[in-house]
């Protein structure tokens, strides 16, 4: 059966507007479309393909597990899930792990757990969740309400209550909103969709102190910033602020859908049997691939490599900007970087992304004013250099129009 980009318009719900080309094959940091045209991938499936496309060890793990057992449901446990949970808890602050299928589901679980823990320990009046404007936590109705972007949550009727938003980085505003009613503060330790915003570390430690003061849980959404992407296994390790609950997805599975919520024994006790669940969560196939990805990522060699590749990215982006003066700053950490557009190019991030795509480079946006790069952690240096040369050609073409 022959399908093309036009087939999308015929059969798919129009909530996406995908690129004109249709990728069919990937290897490492390179992708080929239906016409055999080759692209360098700086998008990484939106910070998912943490080891590139078709990494041999991930392919091997998937093949091996596919010949054993695919699905069981949570009526039974399975060896890959138990091994992955053990490794995640051993490498982090956490004692317990809950598996889901996505970042949104992991965040849904975290929010429900925070409410349930508060109910169990403080009573029904402690139910308020505070999050941050321009945050992003998923597309379920609960998570999209907690995420602080009205463009994603408006238009679907009455929203879940008990959710308040503060300005990211404004500790004084957060302090004014918190009270004995606050059961949790949810935040990205580095905002992704909101524009690749790296907070002041004093702000993050201040949020931790306010949560302690008000006996509220601190929930870190590390769906985008986690699994080595910022030069540590999780960004909280760079900051030195430990959350009560942490969520992971995207890079966790190296391209295979999986999400996880991590927490302590004390907090986990509130999710008793029957209180929450997922048919596919902890799927043996997903956990086997994620375990293989974890084994590769969780190494100082990878983390050091990420920091070196960040320096190369920044150097080349600054060289581009010295010629074209299109960026006000380069934001982010590791292999999660954002080129914030100068005032005269505000609102045109998508134009820059499309111009790059026309020069055979895949990249992203983070809002209307930031071009986002989230490539493989092990992308070869020569692909970074060549990819940014293509990006520069896209900028030159765009500005010449």
TrEMBL record:
It comes from Agaribacter flavus. Binds 1 pyridoxal phosphate per subunit. The keyword Cytoplasm applies. The gene is argD. It catalyses: N(2)-acetyl-L-ornithine + 2-oxoglutarate = N-acetyl-L-glutamate 5-semialdehyde + L-glutamate. Its EC number is 2.6.1.11. It comes from the Bacteria. This is Acetylornithine aminotransferase. It holds the Pfam family Aminotran_3.
């Amino acid at each position: 059966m022959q399908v093309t980009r036009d087939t999308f318009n015929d059969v798919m719900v129009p909530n996406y507007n995908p690129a004109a080309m249709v990728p069919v094959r990937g290897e490492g940091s390179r992708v080929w479309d239906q016409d055999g045209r080759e692209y360098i991938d700086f998008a990484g499936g939106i910070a998912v393909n943490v080891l590139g496309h078709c990494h041999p060890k991930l392919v091997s793990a998937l093949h091996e597990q596919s010949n054993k057992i695919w699905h069981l449901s949570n009526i039974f446990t399975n060896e890959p899930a138990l091994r992955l949970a053990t490794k995640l808890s051993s490498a982090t602050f956490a004692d317990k792990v809950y598996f889901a299928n996505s970042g949104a589901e992991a965040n849904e679980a975290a929010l429900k757990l925070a409410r349930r823990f508060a109910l169990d320990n403080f009573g029904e009046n402690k139910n308020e969740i505070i999050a941050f404007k321009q945050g992003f936590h998923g597309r379920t109705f609960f998570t999209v309400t907690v995420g602080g972007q009205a463009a994603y949550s408006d238009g679907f009727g009455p929203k879940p209550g008990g959710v308040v938003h503060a300005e990211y980085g404004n500790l004084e505003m957060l302090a004014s909103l918190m009270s004995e009613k606050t059961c949790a503060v949810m935040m990205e330790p580095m905002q992704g969709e909101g524009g690749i915003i790296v907070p002041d570390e004093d702000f993050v430690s201040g949020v931790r102190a306010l949560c302690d003061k008000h006996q509220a849980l601190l929930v870190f959404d590390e769906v985008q910033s986690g699994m080595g992407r910022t030069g540590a296994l999780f960004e909280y390790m760079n900051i030195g602020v430990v959350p009560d609950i942490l969520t992971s997805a995207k890079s966790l599975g190296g391209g295979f859908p999986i999400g996880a919520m991590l927490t302590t024994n004390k907090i986990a006790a509130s999710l008793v049997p029957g209180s929450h669940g997922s048919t596919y969560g902890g799927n043996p196939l997903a956990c086997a691939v994620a375990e293989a990805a974890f084994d590769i990522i969780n190494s100082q060699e990878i983390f050091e490599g990420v920091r070196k590749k960040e320096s190369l990215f920044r150097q080349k982006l600054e060289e581009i900007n010295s010629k074209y003066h299109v960026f006000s700053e380069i934001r982010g950490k590791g292999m999660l970087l954002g080129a914030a557009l100068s005032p005269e190019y505000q609102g045109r991030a998508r134009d820059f992304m499309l111009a790059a795509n026309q020069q055979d480079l895949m990249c992203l946006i983070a809002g209307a004013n930031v071009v986002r790069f989230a490539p493989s952690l092990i992308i070869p240096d020569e692909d970074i250099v060549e990819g940014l040369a293509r990006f520069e050609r896209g900028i030159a073409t765009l500005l010449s129009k």
